[in-house]
Amino acid sequence: MSTARQALGRRGEALAADKLVSLGHQVVARNYRCPAGELDLVTRCAAAWVFVEVRTRRGRTRGTPEESLTPRKRRHLVAAAQSYLQAHALDDVPWRIDLVAVEFAPDGALLRVDVIENAVTG
């Protein structure tokens, strides 16, 4: 992955975390990795554990951030969330997987940071 692409991803994740905190989330973990995949953010919102996938795009030549969430990635997110819950002994807690879509204009101006609750179901 190119340095510019990594920087764009880090910027998107930081904006997503800020947005979620402003909505009452507490960030518990960032970039949680397990054999099933990676979770960009793990947060708590009220009693629910929220596993967050951040999709960041500059321009729409490759589609919107939402369109980039493939069925394969959805399966990996569910498996990674279940792995996190098991690893942290979080049996019978309410949880969900949200998507944060971060979109920049081709010139780098921020266009939007949208939170989509329950974007992935397992």
Question: What order do the helices and strands come in, and which of them pair?
Answer:
Elements: H1 3-22, E1 26-34, E2 37-45, E3 48-58, H2 71-87, E4 95-104, E5 110-120
Structural write-up:
The chain has 122 residues and is α+β, with helices and mostly antiparallel strands. It has a single domain (3-120), classed as Trna Endonuclease, Chain: A, domain 1, CATH 3.40.1350.10. 30% of the residues lie in helices and 41% in strands. It has a five-stranded mixed beta sheet. The longest helix is centred in the N-terminal third of the chain and has 20 residues, at 3-22. It starts with a helix and ends with a strand.
Distance between the termini: 29 Å
Task: Please describe the biggest sheet, giving its number of strands, its sense, and whether it closes into a barrel.
Answer: 5 strands, mixed
| Radius of gyration using CA atoms only | 14 Å
Q: In percent, how helical is the residue content?
A: 25-40%
Q: Note poorly predicted spans.
A: none
- Overall pLDDT: 94
CATH class, please? Alpha Beta
**N to C succession of SSEs:** HEEEHEE
**What's the number of helices?**
2
CATH architecture tag: 3-Layer(aba) Sandwich
Strand order of the largest sheet: 1-2-3-4-5
**Number of domain units:** 1
**How many DSSP E strands?**
5
Shape: globular
Instruction: Quickly give the structural class.
Output: alpha+beta
Query: Could you say what the CATH topology is called?
Result: Trna Endonuclease, Chain: A, domain 1
Percent of residues in β-strands: 35-45%
